[in-house]
Amino acid sequence: MQASGMKVWLALLLTAAMASFVAPAPASARDKHKHKAEKPVEEEKPAEPEAEGGGWDQSAESIGKKPKSKAKQDVSPEAAADSSSDSGETKPESESNENVAAIDAASETAAKDEAVASKEPPSWWLGAYLHGVWVPGFMLGLFLQDPPTIANPAFGLTATHRSKDGFSLVMGLGYVGYSFTGGMHEKGKPDVDTEYVQSTLGVVHLTGAMLWSSQLVQDTLSVEYGFGLDFGFITGKLMRTEGYPDGKGGYLPCDRAGFPDTTYCEATVSGGPTDSYNQQGAQYHVKEQRIPPVIVLPMLPLLTLRYTPVRNVAVKLEAAYGVFQFMFGISAAYGLDI
Length: 338
Known about the structure:
With 338 residues, the chain is an alpha+beta fold. 29% of the residues lie in helices and 40% in strands.
């Protein structure tokens, strides 16, 4: 009985020992199955399929997600860096190209505007003129007997604003001389009343003119027409003395009363060396005081022939008539790009 009891005891021990080795197996299988389910989350090493069926017993959703995870793992760090670098640089480069294109377009537009402007004639012109002023004897002959013809130079500076349609507004400052010498006497008076006149008169004047134009040759030759006005201050003086014939159709000044010709160098009414400028009588070396300090001279018509050999240079032949005088001359001006 003791032997059979020992046998039973050994059987129980063996059974317990076997149970201790066999019972943990399900837990290990569950852990292993759990490990397989979590393993796809890892990115560095993809899970390898196992022979056991439990490794493939997954839902359709996990099977659908597997390729995405694999696609992420197939991208190398270098490729990811390059992709990141490219996507980071694309936007600034695009914006930079747009800025460059805008600057180029603005520069091209400015260049075109400058080219167009360079082809248009300047609006402002600075110039100078030289004229000859001619007061014909027949004009003075309306008041005087056998007067001389008076011719003098005139010169000055001008500033002209010329619009695109060819209209010109001229402003200037100039001088014109009216100097002359010779014998003069009033119409209807005897020759013995002839006076010898010496003039150093001149006019410093402001000048203005308005001119319209018609082109003869496009941008090269045109005719201008209009009117002008001079407002000036008289300079110099006019001296009067009795005169006598020189035997050549002219007159010479007397030195004093009775000399060198007793007929023409007549005695004064006052009995003095000379009568006053405003007295009836004989005047010897008297300054005329009845000359106005200012004078206004209109010019109508005013005509010019304008020649432009190059864009910024204009040369004109000019002619005008003003009350009792004629004017002929030339002028030149330089166009300012302002």
